[in-house]
Amino acid sequence: MSVTLTRKDLQTDQDVRWCPGCGDYAILASVQKVLPELGIPREKFVFVSGIGCSSRFPYYMNTYGFHTIHGRAPAIATGLKATRPDLQVWVVTGDGDALSIGGNHFIHVLRRNVGVKILLFNNRIYGLTKGQYSPTSEAGKKAKSTPFGSIDTPLDPVRLALGAGASFVARSIDVEAAHLQGILHRMARHEGAALVEIYQNCNVFNDGAFAQLTNKETKANTQLRMEHGKPLTFAGGTKGIRLRGLEPEVVEVGPGGVPESELLVWDEKAPAALAYLMASLPAGFPTPIGIFRAEERPAHHELEEEQRHRVTEERGEGDLARLLTSGDTWLVE
User: What are the Cα distances from residue 237, in Å, to 233, 242, 295?
Assistant: First the structure.
């Protein structure tokens, strides 16, 4: 049943306790704006989080919520969605929570196409524990745990998700409200596993990590907005992305350059290899934001229901008492 809600209906009486200026505030505001527009009752939403700054999210959403344990939010959300497929189950996590201790759970919730919506706040640092480098920190990152610079290759959440076979993968930025809210609308309508990586500024321990993408003076040249069915352009339409075989290249567009017809037209439903190529653009290219992949295929709970009906038709309803006393049993005296 469709209902009418406002952003205020989604707010709680809890004081929002993130550092002043944290990008989490902007993400919270976008989520609280989008959910009322879906026409879904509040009691049909559940927010599940792990551990980290982002994981305080359920306290600030006037819905059902569960603040769980480090890295295990996808596992708990999987159980919830399996038993209550009628619910909208949202997972809120960070780059440390999801990709370090929670990496295995993250991969498999995507692989299984469990119908949960994952918001991954990526600030490239451990904020809650005060500034250690994270799995997404860039090589050479000097932090409290890497005083001489990180020698590790960073994980890319988008490429990891695509490699795991996720059916919906997107990226946005905390302060790009209109763009983020558009992605959230699409995510909410997706039936399978959906991931949105959100570049989020930690103004205390990693301030300015995405400044080139958000500053008015630079973002036109550094953001590449992917829109289904449209050619890939940036810099006010004066530059674009063209493919030469499997090699992407930046080209000038218009007079003195190439015609727009030569540019790569984005297709979010193309084979995952194209999305992976865009997620792997080398240094010097703009950073893609938008929907990398949107594939419609049966969600895990739909396959479970189908299997349950098939087995019931073949074997009947079953007998729990008989099951518990069948096979190898022991008498303990």
Answer: 5, 13, 28
Distance CA(287)–CA(226), nearest Å, equals 10
Distance, CA of 183 to CA of 261 (rounded, Å)? 26
pLDDT band at 333 (very low <50, low <70, confident <90, very high): low
Backbone dihedral angles phi then psi of residue 257, each to the nearest 5 degrees: -125, -150
**Side-by-side strand order, sheet with 239-244:** 233-234, 239-244, 247-252
In contact, 279 and 158? CB cutoff 8 Å: yes
Q: 7-209: which CATH number, 3.60.70.12, 3.40.50.970, 3.40.630.30, 2.30.40.10?
A: 3.40.50.970
pTM score above 0.90 = yes
330 confidence band (pLDDT: 50, 70, 90): low
Residue 172 near residue 195 (C-beta atoms within 8 A): no
For residue 242, give Cα distances in angstroms to 5, 224, 251, 290: 44, 13, 7, 18
